[in-house]
Write a structure and sequence with these properties.
Layout (H helix, E strand, L loop, with lengths): L7 E9 L2 E10 L4 E4 L8 H12 L3 E6 L10 H13 L14 H16 L4 E6 L5 H5 L5 E7 L9 H5 L5 H12 L4 E6 L8 H9 L3 E6 L13 H15 L1
Length: 246
């Protein structure tokens, strides 16, 4: 069965580092908007299943396709192919610290367009693993009022500095701090034993204070709402969206 059956396919074009850039977008549901950004290797059945849970909770969900094969299950081969796409992409940062991924401007444009269409207080944004920090970068735009970071893992936590980095430029981090000081909240979810997240949650607590809501799960796992799905994590996300979007 096609896991994207019932989802509407379209495209969105916006500037990325001075270049018009187009990506596929999948959409379903009604209600306040949420942008769900997939992890490596792409929009897998597990990602779509989680997005459907957000739809069922009363939201319009859009899933941009940034890399990978839409609808294909996660496998060793699909992961290798997606990593290859990521490595050559100019839209995505991998190892640099103190830098926002260029694709963030495209994602902000997508969120802004969705908010202009649907209205309300704003839209939600959720990133996972490699894209986990993208929700924080999207929060630089006022349209995003419910950012969720699921196991943010970029840049790769290979050194202490990279382990602490939150994938934002100093200017973007200043904007995020300001929004949090004005009352915005940020939700972060991880498995406590997951080394891929590094010390980022500590950085976010230091930078954002009580505005950063930490959900740290017991047990072993990585993908909190997809491949290693935790009901605690899913419930926390849906409650956060309900509070900030309805």
């Amino acid at each position: 069965m096609d896991t994207l059956e019932g989802w509407t396919r379209s495209t969105h074009t916006a500037d990325v580092a001075g270049r018009p850039t187009t990506h596929t977008v999948w959409r379903r549901g009604t209600g306040p908007g949420v942008v769900v950004v997939h992890e490596i290797p792409g929009i897998t059945p597990a990602v779509t299943a989680f997005a459907q849970e957000v739809v069922d909770a009363g939201h319009t969900v859009v899933m941009p396709s940034l890399f990978g094969t839409d609808g294909a299950p996660a496998s060793a081969g699909s992961i290798v192919r997606a990593i290859g796409q990521v490595c050559v992409s100019r839209e995505l940062t991998k190892l640099r610290v103190g830098e926002t991924s260029p694709v963030a401007t495209w994602l902000r444009s997508l969120a802004r367009e969705l908010h202009e269409e649907l209205g309300g207080p704003g839209v939600g944004a959720l990133g996972m693993c490699f894209t986990g920090g993208f929700a924080l970068a999207m929060m630089v735009d006022d349209s995003v009022t419910a950012p969720v970071l699921c196991q943010p893992s970029t840049p790769a936590a290979l050194t202490p500095a990279r382990s602490r980095d939150v994938n934002l430029s100093p200017g973007d981090l200043d904007v995020v701090r300001g929004r949090c000081a004005a009352g915005q909240q940020v939700l972060g979810i991880r498995y406590r034993s997951d080394p891929a997240v590094g010390r980022r949650f500590d950085t976010l607590t230091t930078e954002l204070g009580d505005a950063f809501i930490r959900v740290e799960l017991e047990g072993k796992g990585h993908s909190t709402v997809t491949e290693h799905r935790s009901q605690v994590a899913v419930d926390a996300v849906l409650a956060f969206f309900a509070e900030h979007l309805h």
